[in-house]
Amino acid sequence: MRSWIAGRCRPALVLLLASQATIAADVDTLAGRTERLLQTLQAGDLRLDGAPDELTLPAVNLRIRHCDSYPYHEDQPPQDGARQLLADLRAGMQTGLQCLGGNGPMGRLHPYHEYQAHRLLTLLESPQDKTFKCVEDAMFATAVATDPQGTSIEDPLYQQLRQVDYPAVIFDTYRLGGILSRRHDDQTYRTFFHLAEDQIVEHRSGQPLRPASLHRYRDRAGLVFHELTHWLGHRHSALYPDVATLYETCCFGGSDYISDPDTNAAHQQTACNILKDDALWSQSYRPYTQMRLWHHKGYDRFKLRLRADFDS
Ligand SMILES: [Zn+2]
After folding, report:
1. Secondary structure element (H or E) that encloses residue 280, with its range
2. Which of 43, 126, 281, 293 has the fewest CB atoms found within 10 Å of its own CB?
3. Could you tell me which of 145, 159, 137 has the C-alpha nearest to residue 72?
4. Structural domain contains residue 36
């Protein structure tokens, strides 16, 4: 009798343990962690939290400040901007994390990048406060992120960055929308933008101009993912791997500043090939060796070639 019970119970127990193991494995895999994060990034969970122009998403300790006119500084109902920014974050995380895990359209990358995806998830899951802030015509960059090492006073965007704590991203809705800055002097408007006197007056005091020559950023999901890559300590440089640019170019279909699809596809392929290079990424914890390889393999020319193909 005893052995009969034991015999009957064992398969059930084995089944139970097996299903628990499956759940545990699912939670720890990149796909499982990504899915859990995406479930928390819901616009319906945004809360008004005291400050009139601030919304919070408690599940990830995110504050979205002053973003009513995100992304392109156009008239829209209040809170639509924060909802749109959250949607861009969600789309960016979905595409970017899947790509770093080797499940994007360009296939498997070096495992170092899957590790970066886990690091980003750990930061987003942490109780640390994160900030998205929007500004209007306040900087020359479309967006900028804080660095875990802090902000140097030498940084040209120091005036903006000093107003937020790490981890934060600041978006400029004038730059995102391709709106001409109101901060130039009259001579600049005449010489570089060929504005007539009445246009200058209208631009300064009425509706700002949106010249066709200024870029409106389209792939905002790619931009948000690019900025969050900086939260991991990856900086722009020609001397060592420019991880943020490589991720945006490989995972989000090329550069936002290039409109020709074939040119973009070629740059995307190059970026992904670099991200697959075992010799380069296996040296990620030996920065000097990696820097030499980056130069030796000619990868330091990648960004120059990308920029050379930007729409004029
Ligand atoms: Zn960047």
Report:
1. helix 278-281
2. 126
3. 137
4. yes
User: What's the 283 CA to ligand 1 centre distance in angstroms?
Assistant: 22
Q: What is the pLDDT of residues 267-295, one digit of tens each?
A: 999 999 999 999 999 999 999 999 999 99
Give the pLDDT score at 13.
Answer: 46
pTM of the model: 0.89
* Ligand 1 centre distance from Cα of residue 208 (Å): 27
Inside any domain, residue 148? yes
The reply to whether 207 falls in a domain is no
Question: Is residue 2 within 8 Å of 73, Cβ to Cβ?
Answer: no
What are the angstrom distances between the C-alpha of 37 and each of 97, 120, 123, 125?
11, 11, 11, 8
| Burial degree of 246 (CB within 10 A; 0-12, 13-18, 19+) | buried
Distance from residue 17's CA to the centre of ligand 1 (Å): 45
Rounded Cα distance between 100 and 98, Å, is 6
166 C-alpha to ligand 1 centroid (Å): 15
Work out how many domains the chain is built from and give that number: 1
- Write the burial class of residue 115 (CB in 10 Å: 0-12 exposed, 13-18 middle, 19+ buried): middle
Q: 279 is written with which tokens? A: 């010799």
User: Which pLDDT score, from 0 to 100, does residue 26 have?
Assistant: 58
Q: What's the gap in Å between 223 CA and the centre of ligand 1?
A: 8
Give residue 9 CA to ligand 1 midpoint distance, Å. Answer: 57
**To which residue do tokens 């545990």 refer?**
24
Show the domain range for 92.
Answer: 32-179+214-308
Q: Ligand 1 mean position to 226 CA, how many Å?
A: 6
